[in-house]
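Q: Second attempt. The first request was missing the SMILES, so the protein and S-adenosylmethionine are both included now.
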Amino acid sequence: MTSRKREIAWIVLAVAGVVLTVLALNRFWRRVDRGTIQRRFWNPVYDRLATWYDAVDWLTFNTTHRLRLPVLRHLPPPGSRVLEIGFGSGKLHAQLAGQYQMAGLDLAPGMQRLTQRRLSARGLPSDLRTGSVYAIPWPDASFDAVLSTFAFSAFPDADAAMDEMIRVVKPGGKVIIVDAGESEDGNLVARWLANLWELLGDYMRDEVPLMEARGLQVKREEYGPWNCIHVVVGTRPSWG
Ligand SMILES: C[S@@+](CC[C@H](N)C(=O)[O-])C[C@H]1O[C@@H](n2cnc3c(N)ncnc32)[C@H](O)[C@@H]1O
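A: Got both inputs this time. The predicted holo structure:
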């Protein structure tokens, strides 16, 4: 074998080795329960690194914040009672607090402190609480709308989370969810990005069947780069 051919053989072997290693790691990693990744990694990160999470909007020139804004089109009239689940660092929450009677629930005390500071600095009212979507600390039918942006994909038990979110919405009220996921046009970039989020511990879901199974009237819109973000709006029937 000439030295040129040997060189090419080594390169082919090295590339094959890297590909096989990545595939093996991917297989191993997919066996790790995503609930464990959320509990052991993301929940402490949201709590302790809330300020860093806040910096993401700044680092992305506010692109991440703009991706939350389609919720605004679906909200009930100003003055209505609105609950935000998983409000994070509170940028959307502060934007809404001037117009709506806001309440918020987040698992991370660090996020609550940050959001409270943001609200207090502007003199905005909101009933913020630390707690889990699986046990929302408000009575049935308390809100005209319950919204959540980029948080539903962090909840391991989608059925329990959806049941609770619907429980606290008034008949005729709305559940509004913004999150990332695959696109209905099947484009490969959105699929690849969804794959990446799943490797990081998120759950890429279609919330439409979850809402329809609970009797909500549902509409879904996609937007953002490669249509990889969606907003799903479920309206609770006025009689139930
Ligand atoms: C990816 S961040 C999204 C934050 C913000 N809504 C946004 O648009 O950037 C997910 C948020 O959900 C919160 N969270 C995670 N699990 C939760 C749970 N079981 N109940 C309530 N909030 C939860 C986290 O603390 C975090 O603030």
